[in-house]
Amino acid sequence: MTPETDCYSCQGNADIGRLPLRERIAVDEFWRVAHAFDSALPGWLVLLPRRHVITIAELTGAEAASLGTWQVRLSRALRTVTKCRKTYVAQFAEAEAFAHVHFHIVPRPVDLAAELRGPRVFGLLGANDRPQVTDAAMDKLATELSAQLATST
């Protein structure tokens, strides 16, 4: 797993043991789960391949086989921990320095404003006009999610 020097995700994957829990909520041989930074929505997770991949088509059979399992496990853990109504799953990997494939697993709270539902939920990521989830809040959620994932399959 050689890190790409200009890839934010690879930089984190290269030194997983030093990452705060919010950036390594769960880790296996293929995937790492992190809380999204710069988010105004608590529980916004990112599922990242451990190796540098820029398209879904580049996933190995084993990575692809475990992808769906991770998406469902994370959705269930978010439902339990955040009490969300459902989760959204999206993948774009288009932002500069973020071409590394990553999947957004986004909790959709029961009370989410109608104008932020569906793809408009991305208005809560990188939004300077909304309070961002603090590191302390992400760490608390990471602890709860990690514990939930440890007891579920």
Topology of this protein?
Layout: H1 8-14, E1 26-27, E2 31-35, E3 45-49, H2 61-82, E4 86-91, E5 103-108, H3 135-150
Antiparallel strand pairs: 1-2, 2-3, 3-5, 4-5
Helix pairs in contact: 2-3
Could you characterize the architecture of this molecule?
By secondary structure, the protein is an alpha+beta fold. The chain has a single domain (8-141), classed as HIT family, subunit A (2-Layer Sandwich), CATH 3.30.428. Helix content is 29%, strand content 16%. The protein has helices at 8-14, 61-82, 135-150; strands at residues 26-27, 31-35, 45-49, 86-91, 103-108. The protein has a 5-stranded antiparallel beta sheet. The chain is globular and about 40 Å long. The chain starts with 7 loop residues before the first helix and ends with a helix.
Key descriptive features of the protein:
153 residues; alpha+beta; 5-stranded antiparallel sheet
How many structural domains? 1
Strand content: 15-25%
| Poorly predicted runs | none
Strands side by side in the biggest sheet: 1-2-3-5-4
Number of helices: 3
CATH architectural designation: 2-Layer Sandwich
- Rg over CA atoms, rounded to whole Å, is 15 Å
At the first level of CATH, the class is Alpha Beta
* Count of DSSP strands: 5
Biggest beta sheet summary: 5 strands, antiparallel
CATH topology tier name: HIT family, subunit A
Helix content: 25-40%
Compressed to H and E, one letter per element, the order equals: HEEEHEEH
How far the N terminus sits from the C terminus, by CA atoms, comes to: 26 Å
Silhouette: globular
> What name goes with the CATH superfamily?
HIT-like
What number is the mean pLDDT? Answer: 90
SS-based structural class? alpha+beta
